[in-house]
Write a structure and sequence with these properties.
single chain, mainly alpha, Rna Polymerase Sigma Factor, Chain: A, Arc Repressor Mutant, subunit A, 2 domains, 79% helix, elongated, transcription, RNA polymerase sigma-70 factor, sigma factor activity
Length: 183
């Protein structure tokens, strides 16, 4: 940690609000862009970055920062972004399992409830390539590698398209079914 960061940290520990606000103005927009590059969601990114600054303000006297303050902030945002993505993935698995169970349960008639029509309509509203990738993954239960090979695209392209499809479908299904559906 350089001398300037040591002085900043000491001022923060002494609850110097002007130093905190200057630090916020200096790093907020860069941290926000950094977070958006990981989670692809502006609102979530804003929450993550604001929570980091809140955490810094509330816990600064307990923090042990060995690297630069800038490095600490970026690492903290990165860790929070990955935690957010991991939580989404866990909820995603649970919701996919629930949906699969509903689709496989002969006692649940999705056609009568209109859910299957709503899901199909939401998939039709996706861009064609994105919809195709989503169908291959979730309706034909193909692996990301198999989809990439079949469509002659990279695995990262498949992952990105699936991620974006999930965001669009989540928003569409929440709106039309009034569900809290997270893939």
């Amino acid at each position: 940690m350089n001398v300037q960061d040591k002085i900043l940290l000491k001022e923060l520990q002494e609850r110097n609000q002007e130093v905190f606000e200057a630090l916020f103005r200096e790093y907020y927009s860069g941290l926000l862009r950094f977070a958006e590059g990981i989670v692809f969601d502006e609102k979530v990114s804003e929450d993550i970055v604001q929570n980091i600054f809140l955490f810094l303000w509330e816990r600064v006297e307990y923090l042990v920062i060995t690297a630069s303050l800038k490095q600490y902030l970026y690492q903290a945002v990165k860790n929070r972004c990955f935690n957010h993505l991991r939580n989404i993935k866990i909820r995603d698995k649970h919701n996919v399992l629930y949906l699969e169970a509903c689709l496989n349960d002969r006692n649940v008639d999705l056609a009568d409830t209109g859910i299957s029509r709503t899901i199909e309509a939401s998939i039709l509203n996706l861009p064609p390539k994105m919809a195709e990738i989503f169908r291959l993954k979730y309706q034909h239960v193909k692996s990301i590698r198999a989809i990439a090979e079949e469509l002659e695209v990279s695995e990262n392209t498949v992952k990105t398209q699936l991620y974006r499809a999930k965001i669009k479908l989540r928003a569409s299904l929440q709106e039309s079914l009034n569900l809290h559906f997270v893939f």
